[in-house]
Amino acid sequence: MAELPNLLDEAMGFAPGSAAPFPRGGVVVLVEDCVETSGAFVLHHFLKRALSSGGGGGGAVVFLAFAQPFAHYDRLLRKLGCNLSVQRKNNKLHFFDLLEYPGLRKGNATNRGFLDLYREIQRVVEGCSLQEDNKGCVNIMIDDLSFLEIAAHGSMDDVLDFLHYCISLTSVMDCSLVILNHEDIYATEEDHELLTHLRYFSDFLIKVGPLNTGLAADVHGQLTIVNKEIFKDHARPMQKVRNFHFKVKENGVETFYPGSRH
Amino acid sequence: MAEAISRYLRDGSLEGEHAPALTIEDSLRSPLGSHAFHHFLTALLSHITNGRSQASGLVLVALNRSPSFYFDLLKRSGFDASLVDKSVRVLDCYSDPLGWKDLISRSETDRKRPIGRASVTGFKNVKNIDKLLSSVLDLGKGFAGQGKSKFAVAVDSVSIMLRHSSLPSVTGLLSNLRSHDQISSIFWLIHSDLHEMRVSTALEYISSMVASIEPVVLSTNNGHGSAGNLLSLEQNLCKAKFHVRLKQRNGRVKLLQEELHIEQNGIKFASVTSVSTAVNQSLLPKVQFNLQLSDKELIDRANVVLPFEHQGNGENIQIYDGRRSLPENQRDDTKAAPGSEKGGQIHYIRDSDDERPDSDEDPDDDLDI
After folding, report:
1. In this complex, which of A122, A157, A228 lies closest to B31 when CB atoms are compared?
2. Closest by alpha carbon to A5, among A59, A39, A37, A48?
3. CATH match for B2-283 among 3.90.226.10, 3.40.50.300, 3.10.50.30, 1.25.40.10
4. Which residue of A46, A201, A211, B95 has the lowest C-beta tally within 10 Å?
5. pLDDT reading at B201 higher than 90
6. What is the ipTM of this complex?
7. Closest Cα partner for A61 from A47, A73, A45?
């Protein structure tokens, strides 16, 4: 059953029934959440879209999981109508359980560890782009960046070097990169540098936060999407900033403009 | 004013002077620095391809975007691919800045490296600033055969360079490039909020022009998603203030300001004066009265004869001293007057000079009755 696209898809430039991959190739998406409102549902939504959109069985996903084990994502995505185990068997989903990854385990991540991880990613991405049946593009997803920072012993340069290489794949291999990160852990000026770097190189910035007016039963929070793409192939100028409310349900996420319900 | 910058970059260095250097700085509050960088890049390149500039070619040090992005950008700006290949050399510090890909491909010998364009040179160790300098100069020597020996240099992100190397070595590189006699002009982009204040100041000292991009609307800190914040975000992504500081040879510093607008095909600069006068005109309160008199009104007012002040116009001023009656002949005149004149008339003779013409003082209050 074809699902209706929501405001989140629309803001990312995804049209219903289009054969274009989601997210588009060459795009870097940064999702920022906070303690009050988790942004994991955005990642789940993107994961599902990436595996199902684009025609011809969807694109491939390289998922770097630091936060949760595979079973967690499998259970959640099953409710969204997407079987990750099958996708994994079909080589559509390349799941890196980085809690178990030898190079980064027990906090002994060095530059070498990141190099090895990147080598794996590059191998998978190159393999995916060679496959004939792969009509969509390859998506690299990181859940979440704060754990990567812990693995790097807080070395911002190592994290940024690794991310730079992942980003260079987006332009060379036409894949996309989605990063989940927390905004509120960078409270001081010195810590802010990593977040500022991330914001500079992202094409889409998605902020997930609580409502300004406080808690509500029907609304779980708000999303602000900033589109910073330099080249736009659309005939009409796209709105650069969008803001809407969301409600996370068992089988998906509902999005609506403030005041448009009831 | 943006044209003035382009002109300085085009005209290049004078005999016995350093090359003109432009710093473009922006921040996340107004992240349009890369648009401005692209503008100056395409403007300079069009002068180079037309043969109007001092430089015969451009070396682009690409740290922030891939070479293919720049070729795409130039293609969209209407440059012919063969001309671009002839006059642009890209030093690719983006694809493999630390040599990781090189290491990987060396260990997996079966895979072939993709062959890029001839005008792109890969650079695999951005931490080595000395090698970077010599690579830029080597690439520039490639243009020497075309009659003119000078070339221009563009660095797309000094911020990334500063992440890999210290401030003294980066400023050393830039000032070496600037003082090199083969370089006609140089410009670079820096994100000022990634660094301490002293970093941008240090770079401003070694540049002759500084273009800083500042937000048009300052965001109100009402928490994310508030209407005011969204509006300012949207506004700041479409336009910005473009402040320019031009240092002249005699030490004079010129400050100029323009407004930068993002449009469908590139950016546009608008002079800020027209905008500010429009604002002033609309902001000046519209009042129903005048605070000052015009010249004509002042003359008219001076000509008004106040009541009872008609005695000064050529006739004798008569003051009643209270003891003496009026002369007989005058008394007769007053008797005859009602017959000769139409209507009534009041003749008033002032008591003394002390009395103001319209005094409320009782004239008889000194009578001892």
Report:
1. A228
2. A48
3. 3.40.50.300
4. A211
5. yes
6. 0.88
7. A47
